[in-house]
Design a protein that fits this description.
Blueprint lengths: L10 H23 L3 H12 L4 E2 H8 L3 H13 L3 E6 L2 E9 L1 H10 L2 H9 L3 H18 L3 H4 L1
Length: 149
């Protein structure tokens, strides 16, 4: 069995440490808005969908379990940023939509991508290429070889 790579040479550690660094860069903006990064991700998925999304659709979009999304949506609802409405035809399904306050919060937080460009000094094209590579890695690890190419 080969010797393990030093920590700094391990891709998983580099991705983990980069995620922490990005979250630290985002934290002052998110703190000012009163939301966490996972809540920001929920707002982002809702911003993508004009008519809102079900809890299950949000979970699918974020590659998380619905049981993880439900408490996030409840906290966002308590903050007045989203509404949660049960489907009258299927009480198990909850649809989540941005409120006007949620749309305003999203508009204020939408600058986070520019923050990464500013902090890293990397060009948007270089960051887009890096993102494409990381997305391909994620898809390959999830077993979706066609999306990984």
């Amino acid at each position: 069995m080969p010797d393990p790579l030093p920590l700094d040479d391990q891709l998983c550690f580099s991705l983990y440490a980069a995620t922490i660094a990005i979250n630290r860069a985002y934290k002052p903006v998110l703190d000012r808005l009163g939301i966490t990064y996972p809540q920001f991700l929920v707002l982002q998925t809702l911003h993508e969908a004009e008519d809102g999304r079900s809890i299950g659709a949000i979970a699918d979009r974020l590659a998380l379990e619905p049981s993880t999304i439900t408490p996030l949506a409840k906290r966002l609802e308590a903050a007045g940023l989203v509404t949660r409405i049960r489907n009258p035809a299927d009480e198990r399904q909850v649809r989540v939509r941005l409120t006007e306050a949620g749309k305003a919060c999203w508009a204020e937080s939408g600058c986070l991508g520019a923050l990464v460009v500013e902090r890293t000094g990397m060009t948007p094209d270089r960051l887009a290429a890096l993102n494409a590579e990381v997305a391909a890695l994620r898809h390959a690890l999830a077993g979706d070889r066609t999306a990984a190419q």
